[in-house]
Amino acid sequence: MTSLPAQPLSPLDGRYRAAVAPLSDFLSEAGLNRARVEVEVEWLIALTDRSVFGTSPLSDDHKAQLRALYLDFGQAEIDWLAEREAVTRHDVKAVEYLVRDRLSQLGLDAIAELTHFACTSEDINSLSYALTVKRATLDVWLPALRLVTAKLSDLAREHADAPMLSRTHGQPATPSTMGKELAVFVWRLERVARKIEANEFLGKFSGATGTWSAHLAADPELDWPTVAREFVESLGLDFNILTTQIESHDWQVELYDLIRHVGGILHNLATDIWTYISLGYFTQIPVAGATGSSTMPHKINPIRFENAEANLEISGALLNSLSQTLVTSRLQRDLTDSSTQRNIGVAYGHSLLAIDNLRRGLGEILLARDVLLADLDNNWEVLGEAIQTVVRAEVVAGRSSISDPYALLKELTRGHKVGGDELRAFVAGLEIGDDAKARLIELTPPTYTGLAQKLVDEI
């Protein structure tokens, strides 16, 4: 058997490439290296702006030419770094050499030794991961989630007045509306999304063991922690002053747990919509030319929601692994986190793919209100709750002497169907006030939805 031509091993880089491509700008190896170049260049500029060791601030042209190294980062830089890393066997050192090479091209060899000055690799990596994860989260992942919540909000409002039979423990229960049930997911998702937006993205910049030892050896008079804080914050990041060689990754653990939490909510949404489709509550809009089943022509399979389920499970497992691994580092440093963090993009990719499927799936369903109404009409016994509750109120008010309203309705409704005529006849014979009796006689399963429609306004 001959070998295949070179193929992507991960489906994220093959079959599903289009759906997750925006993450590559940040969470790919190239995206990480571009951020590393950015940090190295900006650190050098920050040092010369302070005129450390007798240097002078760079001209605006030189700053622009240096920044072009990461702003215009492309295939040429990717190839250059790959070739150099093959020799150095160290990815961050290769980045340092790339910056030095640009300085030489610009005739700035005199400040070359300020490249990577007093830095450990983790200073560069800490800020680079914070930059890439922040941008991937806020610029790609969160906007995609917002599209899903916006679509859910639209559906919730559209179907706010659509009464449906609830199912608690899988059994017929007090009716709600489809809009209110969808609004619950919007409420849940927005709550966690706000926490993600407020999450810190921390970076450290304090040298080999987090003590600024080399910095002070070079210039004991300079307030290096303040210099580091101002530099980190100039990149739009939060500063962690107390670390070992590595930034402790707690902000990443918190973030990945929140994203995993969102994934759990979305998984719940996917399974609920799948179930509503199986009940006939939602119909799926046929796509011209699409095949649902290879052998059963009538079928339209809910593949968007099934695909979302699977990818959320994969993403959740990876995010959980990231959280468990990144929270620990032996003594002042080990390299476990280095390998682990290279899978951040994979975890985000499966999550983004699931979100994309949910967004598209929600746009391919229609509510079958007639099915909802037929289901309600077949389950009048759900009004048993309303009747026994009203009777209890009447007993308290002194308008009834019924001894056990719950048992009375349990005997009437539990384990067998009761139609509308039977319930109305039952109510007519109850010892309760006329107003209460009239309200119950007028009540139907579709009208027994409480504040469900109004609750949609809360989202």
Number of helices: 20
Architecture (CATH level 2) name of the largest domain: Up-down Bundle
Structural class: mainly alpha
Helicity, in percent? 55-70%
- The total tally of domains equals 3
Radius of gyration: 31 Å
User: Biggest β-sheet, characterized?
Assistant: 2 strands, antiparallel
Strand order of the largest sheet: 1-2
Detail the topology: elements first, then pairings:
Layout: H1 17-20, H2 24-27, H3 29-49, H4 60-71, H5 75-88, H6 91-105, H7 121-158, E1 163-168, E2 171-177, H8 178-197, E3 202-203, H9 213-218, H10 224-234, E4 238-239, H11 250-279, E5 282-284, H12 303-326, H13 336-341, H14 344-362, E6 365-367, H15 369-377, H16 384-397, H17 405-413, H18 420-428, H19 434-442, H20 452-455
Parallel strand pairs: 3-4
Antiparallel strand pairs: 1-2, 5-6
Helix pairs in contact: 3-4, 3-6, 3-7, 5-6, 7-8, 7-14, 8-11, 11-12, 12-14, 16-17, 18-19
Defining traits:
two-stranded antiparallel ribbon, Ribonucleotide Reductase Protein R1, domain 1, single chain, Fumarase C, Chain B, domain 1, two-stranded parallel ribbon, elongated, Fumarase C, Chain A, domain 2, mainly alpha
